[in-house]
Amino acid sequence: MDNLKAELLRGLWYVACPGAEIKAGAMTGRKLMGELVLIGRDRHGKVFALRDICPHRGIPLRHGWFDGEHVQCCYHGWKFDTDGACVDIPSTHEYQTIDYSKITCGAYPAVEQQGLIWIYFAEKGEKPEDGRQPAPPLLPDFAADQGPSVAIMQPFVCSVDHAALGLMDPTHAAFVHTSWWFKKNGAKLRPKEKVFEPSELGWAMVRHKIPPQNIAYRYLLGDNVTTEISYRLPGLRIEHIKGDRHCVVGLTTITPVTEDETEVRQLFWSTIGWLKPFNPLVRYLMNVFLDQDRRVVIQQREGLEYNPKLMLINDADTQGRWWMQLKREWATSQAEGRAFDNPVKARTLRWMS
C-alpha cells in the first residue's frame, strides 16, 4: 500500500467494459492488466478477447480489420479467428507448407453477463473452470441478460490499491464529496457503527436498515429499506439496496490498466422503470462524485512520490487493511497451490463520518 505501483492479481475475472460499447462486427483495443487486449463482438453477437499483438511482426491487431468472423492484420494481412487461431497468411505460395494450427495470437476467456464484458486473466494458462474463480459474480435480483441503467467510467492515475482504499474509505465524504448543492459548508460528523463479516473473496457490511432521515429511499423503494455493501477481489464494490417495492444494485469496478493506472466504473441496475428519463441527471451526479474521488487520489500521488510510511488507524482504515490482507493471501495461496483462506474475521467497526 505504501508503493505507487500495485501487484496485479491473476486467476480472476475483471470487468473490461459494458457490452453496449462493443457493437456486432466491431472491435476495440484496450490496455488491461498491463497487456494489450483486443475486445470484439462477432456477427452473431458473441464477445471475444484476443491478445492485441500480431505474432508475425508484433503490430497491434486493432489497427487492422474485422469482418465479423476474422481479424486481419493491417501489416501483412494475416487472419485470425475469434479464438486467436491463424487461418490465413496471404504471402504463402503454393510450394510452401505452414501448419496454421501452431500459430496463434493468443486469446482470453471472455463472457458477457448482466450487460458487462468480463475477461479472465489466467495465473498459469489455466481455464477459468480449472481455476479458483470459475465464473464472474452474478449481481442479486437481476437476470443474467439485464444490463445496467446507467454506467460511467473515469481513469484514475493511481494504482488499483490506492483507488480501492480511497473508494472504500468510510470517513472522507465530509471533506471530499462537497459541492454548492451538497454539503456546501461541510457536514456534521456523526458516530457510525456497522457490523462486518467475511464473504466470498472479501467482506460485507451486514444488511441493515437505512436511517429514517433518508426519506428519498423510502419514496423510491418503499418501506423497510435495507442495504448490504460488499467488497471482493479483484476490485468490486457491490451495494444492494432493497425495499418493499423496488431494489437498486450499485456496482463499482476497479480494473488495473497497468501497475499504476486504473479504470474505475460505476454502474447501477434498478427495477424502477419510470426513472429512465432521469438517467442523464443521474449520470451527471455520478460523474461529479467519482471525479471528486479521482482528483483526491491524484493529489495524494504528489506525496506518495516520496515513499512515505502510511499510518493507517484502527476501525476507520480497517477495510483498507483487509484489502491488502486479501491480496496477500490470494497471491500466497496461488504460489503454494492451496485453497484460498479468507483472512477477514467478523467484527464491529466504529468511526465518525
Written account of the structure:
The protein is α+β, with helices and mostly antiparallel strands and 353 residues long. The chain has 2 domains: 12-130, 3-layer Sandwich (Rieske Iron-sulfur Protein), CATH 2.102.10.10; 150-352, Alpha-Beta Complex (Naphthalene 1,2-dioxygenase Alpha Subunit, Chain A, domain 1). Helix content is 18%, strand content 32%. Helix 1 (160-168) crosses helix 5. The radius of gyration is 22 Å and the shape is globular. It starts with 11 loop residues before the first strand and ends with a strand. The model has no long low-confidence stretch (mean pLDDT 94).
* Separation, N- and C-terminal Cα atoms: 23 Å
CATH superfamily of the largest domain: Naphthalene 1,2-dioxygenase Alpha Subunit, Chain A, domain 1
pLDDT average, as an integer?
A: 94
- Residue runs with pLDDT of under 50 for 5 or more positions: none
Number of structurally distinct domains:
2
In the CATH hierarchy, what is the architecture of the largest domain at level 2?
Alpha-Beta Complex
Notable traits:
353 residues; Rieske Iron-sulfur Protein; Naphthalene 1,2-dioxygenase Alpha Subunit, Chain A, domain 1; 2 domains; 5 helices; globular; iron; iron-sulfur; metal ion binding; dioxygenase activity; 2Fe-2S
Summarize it.
InterPro entries: Cholesterol_7-desaturase, Rieske_2Fe-2S, Rieske_2Fe-2S_sf, VanA_C_cat. With 353 residues, the chain is α+β, with helices and mostly antiparallel strands. It has five helices and 19 strands.
Task: Set down the secondary structure blueprint.
Layout: E1 12-18, E2 27-32, E3 35-41, E4 47-51, E5 65-66, E6 70-72, E7 79-81, E8 86-88, E9 107-108, E10 110-113, E11 116-121, E12 150-156, H1 160-168, H2 173-176, E13 191-199, E14 202-209, H3 215-221, E15 226-232, E16 236-242, E17 247-258, E18 261-270, H4 279-304, H5 318-336, E19 347-352
Antiparallel strand pairs: 1-11, 2-3, 3-4, 4-9, 5-6, 6-7, 7-8, 10-11, 12-18, 13-14, 13-19, 14-15, 15-16, 16-17, 17-18
Helix pairs in contact: 1-5
